[in-house]
Specification:
By secondary structure, the protein is an alpha+beta fold. Helix content is 36%, strand content 17%. The chain has helices at residues 2-15, 23-39, 55-58, 63-71, 83-88, 95-106, 178-186, 205-213, 235-238, 302-310, 313-323, 333-359, 370-384, 389-399, 412-416, 463-467, and strands at residues 113-122, 131-133, 141-149, 155-160, 195-198, 217-221, 246-250, 260-265, 269-274, 283-289, 294-300, 423-425, 432-433, 443-444, 446-448, 453-454. The strands form four sheets. Strands 1, 2, 3, 4, 5, 6, 7, 8 and 9 form a nine-stranded mixed sheet that branches. Strands 12-15-16 form a three-stranded antiparallel sheet, with no helix packed on it. Strands 10-11 form a two-stranded antiparallel sheet. Strand 15 and strand 16 (453-454) form a beta hairpin. Helix 2 runs antiparallel to helix 13 and helix 6 packs parallel to helix 12. The longest helix has 27 residues, at 333-359. The radius of gyration is 31 Å and the shape is elongated. It starts with a helix and ends with a helix.
């Protein structure tokens, strides 16, 4: 109910009157947004235009009402948040919604192997501190979200980066950089004897030692300048060795967790560091050889195999969200975050649904894909958001049928076209009001077929001819 209460409150504070948004209407609003994410019209107003309208949308909510709710959507009361709270938390405008989504993620069962990676929330508006730019990402500009996920794409925990100076409250007493603090924060919900996979942005020797104290293993790629003291040859000489060449170094420090550092020559030297896996057992993978112009078998260490198998969970979730992302332009970063995490929750629900169906042994044709799943949720939200039919009938009996909206007049260019206009006399009990501007008293049973409006056409009054001039 927070969306309903604070949206109405915000409108009263700004406009001086109540927006009268109901709980059922808010459910319809989110159901329509979900449907729009699937249909993906290039412009928002096309869902209500005569030629391209979607009856499911137009029958549930008018365009102006939808825009009104979208513009005034709120989850907190600004007057209840102090200046100190605003400075401490730059996401205070959406914090209750993020907390609700995160609480749902924390209830998920944790597998033994999980991964941590970055996720970009696309946004091109002007937001100080929150907006980041990561070159090489599919969506380089937007807000950064650190995610803990399963290899199958189920989000278990997340924390949104708030820009320079962001601190993450952890139990560690040591000084940590942002990447190390993020991993320590997200690992709080990871049980002991698990293994976390991450990329080179996060992996450091200090982080592996800290996770080892919590009995959590760690595997990840690492940059050469972050490697512990190893006797590896330089990258230039190592890249000249045969493809698939592997070297391994194991730390012998008894006071710390034993760490294996593996260097593997693929297209270029790749470094990985782990407190769980090492070089053996070796397997083979297929790679394209430019010199021989064919695929060849290349030996691969076990640490690379495990990393490739368990690291892609966040990218999987990001890809699923990108299929049906709510992409309509807005200057409000709060609306972007709300819609992103709303879609994330739906994707999480679908991943759970698919996993449960597979465990039950259901055939593939009985498992709904993501699009059908989102359509079903949209239908449920829009249908359950309607008022009860019995109460509507009682209201009709008391107040009578609702007044019908008058059709818009056709645009002037369509009225001036000579072709297609034809008067048609209809057998009606009561004549309709004339639609020519300026004729306030005339009534007629004559209708223009092309313009679909009633116009006076008598000896004394010819509104039909004047309307098409």
């Amino acid at each position: 109910m927070s969306f309903v209460n604070f949206t109405n409150l915000r409108y009263v504070q700004e406009k001086g009157r109540n927006l009268n948004v109901t709980f059922e209407e808010m459910k319809i609003f989110f159901g329509i947004n979900l449907l729009m994410s699937v249909l993906r019209y290039p412009r928002l107003r096309m869902y209500w235009q005569k030629f391209t309208q979607v009856s499911t949308v137009t029958s549930k909510m008018s365009r102006d009402r939808f825009t009104q709710i979208r513009t005034n959507l709120k989850i907190v009361n600004d007057l209840d948040v102090s200046q100190d709270q605003r400075k401490a938390d730059r996401l205070w405008k959406v914090r209750p919604f993020l907390t609700a989504i995160r609480d749902g993620c924390l209830k998920m069962i944790r597998p033994v192997r999980v991964c941590i990676d970055e996720q970009m929330i696309p946004f091109t508006g002007t937001v100080t501190n929150l907006k980041q730019f990561l070159r090489g990402k599919p969506n380089p500009e937007g807000m950064k979200n650190f995610v803990l996920a399963t290899p199958g794409g189920l989000v278990l925990d997340f924390c949104v980066y708030q820009g320079k100076g962001t601190t993450f409250q952890t139990d560690c007493h040591l000084t940590l950089n942002v990447a190390e603090a993020v991993v320590m924060k997200l690992s709080e919900s990871v049980p002991a004897s698990s293994c976390i996979y991450m990329d080179r942005y996060f992996t450091t020797e200090k982080l592996i030692d800290l996770l080892g104290e919590q009995q959590i293993a760690c595997t990840g790629t690492v940059m050469r300048n972050k490697l512990p003291k190893c006797d590896f040859i330089c990258d230039k000489d190592f890249s000249r060795l045969p493809r698939g060449t592997t070297e391994m170094f194991v730390s012998q420090d008894l006071e710390k967790v034993s760490v294996a550092v593996v260097e593997w020559n693929d297209n270029k030297p790749i470094y990985l560091m782990s407190s769980k896996e090492g070089k053996t057992p070796m397997d083979e993978c297929r790679r394209w050889c430019k010199k021989q112009k064919k695929y060849i078998d290349v030996s691969r260490p076990n640490i690379v195999t495990s990393y490739n198998q368990y690291m892609g969970g966040v990218d999987m979730n990001d890809r699923l969200i990108s299929y049906y992302r709510n992409f309509y332009k807005t200057k409000k970063w709060t609306l972007i975050i709300i819609m992103h995490f709303f879609t994330l929750a739906v994707v999480n629900a679908w991943v759970q649904y698919r996993n449960d169906r597979k465990i039950l042994g259901r055939p593939k044709k009985e498992i709904s894909d993501l699009m059908d799943f989102m359509m079903e949720i949209s239908e449920h939200l829009t249908e359950s958001g309607d008022k009860d039919s019995s109460s509507e009938e009682e209201l009709e009996e008391e107040q009578g049928p609702p007044p019908q909206k008058r059709k818009r007049l056709p645009p002037l260019p369509a009225r001036l076209k000579k072709a297609g206009h034809m008067p048609e006399a209809l057998e009606m009990k009561n004549p309709a009001r004339c639609r020519r501007p300026g004729c306030s008293t005339g009534k007629s049973r004559i209708k223009c077929r092309r313009c679909d409006v009633f116009l006076c056409l008598t000896k004394d009054k010819n509104c039909y001819e004047l309307f098409h001039q």
